[in-house]
Structure to design on (325 residues):
């Protein structure tokens, strides 16, 4: 039996305390949450996602005062970053505390921590009173969900309605996953881009941020990820006409509002106003393409500013998918 969505934070906490899984809203994407202290809950998260057990999961905390229960040495610059930006779309990868389960960290010496900015989920976390492991609530390698319906479509049959729940907090405002910053020594490292930009991190920490785009320890940063079934073709605006004319099938198109559509037959999937709106609507647009049975989506890349950097990153990775992923 498939699970039903609810808006009842108390029911979500009860399910988590019984060892169940709860798909819950965050400001970025929906996460598939379980008690981060429970090996059984973690095993089920990996199972439902179809995710390799060597890939670590992010632990979601009620507030920044929980940092030291999960981390060993938090660099001072990272602590002030957390205090400035939490709750918010920032994950810190810090040295783990001794009692953090291996299954959380994928066997690594670090743990990923964040405080999500969503009222319903903050209520769940405050009542639960400890960390919740929550990777994005999608099958491994696929597009992250930004509505409760996306979660139901993708995981509904894999969840167990006698113990799991989907908490419906409406569409996620940000729409792409949190910025991940490596924080294990003196230098901030960007491991995944998001709404929080490198410039913001540099300004808040007073330190230069190095870019690591292909850290194998951060699976979301491997080349093939975030992929719909449709083939994604990212293009710069000036190349749109040429690329569109070469396609022999009707295609889906995602492009900023001001971009002139090509003459070839296509379905406009989204016309975001700006980079923030592009991030917000991207994953829903990719899912719409699959629902419509389109085999190709042309995505006109937004300028590389603000969260446009993260949109470009996700589109490039979506395009690099491996067959069958
Ligand atoms: O916005 C988000 O971060 C969402 C919401 C639900 O919070 N979560 C999310 O989780 O995107 P997930 O598991 O799909 O992606 C987390 C990324 C993965 O690439 C993972 O490898 C990396 O964070 N990560 C987590 N812990 C890590 C660690 N200890 N070392 C290196 N990378 C880590
Ligand atoms: Mg993910």
């Amino acid at each position: 039996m498939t699970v039903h969505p609810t808006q009842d934070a108390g029911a979500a906490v009860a399910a988590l305390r019984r060892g169940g899984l709860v798909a819950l809203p965050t400001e970025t994407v929906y996460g598939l949450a379980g008690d981060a202290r429970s090996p059984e809950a973690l095993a089920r998260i990996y199972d439902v996602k179809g995710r390799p057990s060597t890939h670590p999961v992010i632990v979601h905390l009620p507030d920044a005062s929980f940092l030291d229960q999960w981390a060993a040495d938090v660099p001072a610059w990272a602590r002030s970053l957390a205090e400035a930006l939490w709750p918010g779309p920032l994950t810190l990868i810090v040295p783990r505390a001794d009692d953090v389960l291996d299954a959380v960290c994928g066997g690594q010496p670090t743990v990923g921590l964040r405080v999500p900015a969503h009222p319903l989920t903050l209520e769940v976390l405050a009542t639960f009173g400890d960390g919740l492991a929550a990777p994005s609530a999608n099958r491994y390698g696929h597009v992250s969900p930004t509505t409760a319906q996306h979660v139901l479509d993708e995981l509904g049959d894999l969840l167990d309605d006698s113990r799991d729940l989907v908490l419906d907090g409406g569409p996620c405002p940000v729409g792409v996953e949190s910025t991940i910053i490596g924080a294990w020594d003196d230098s901030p490292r960007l491991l995944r881009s998001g709404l929080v930009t490198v410039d913001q991190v540099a300004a808040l920490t007073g330190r230069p941020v190095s870019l690591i785009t292909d850290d194998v320890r951060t699976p979301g940063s491997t080349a093939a990820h975030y992929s719909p079934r449709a083939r994604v073709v990212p293009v710069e605006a000036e190349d749109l006409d040429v690329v569109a004319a070469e396609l022999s099938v009707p295609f889906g198109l995602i492009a900023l509002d001001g971009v002139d559509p090509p003459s070839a037959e296509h379905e406009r999937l989204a016309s975001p106003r700006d980079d923030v709106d592009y991030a917000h609507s991207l994953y829903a647009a990719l899912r719409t393409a699959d629902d419509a049975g389109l085999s190709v989506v042309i995505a006109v890349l937004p300028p590389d500013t603000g969260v446009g950097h993260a949109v470009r990153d996700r589109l490039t990775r979506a395009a690099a998918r491996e067959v069958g992923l």
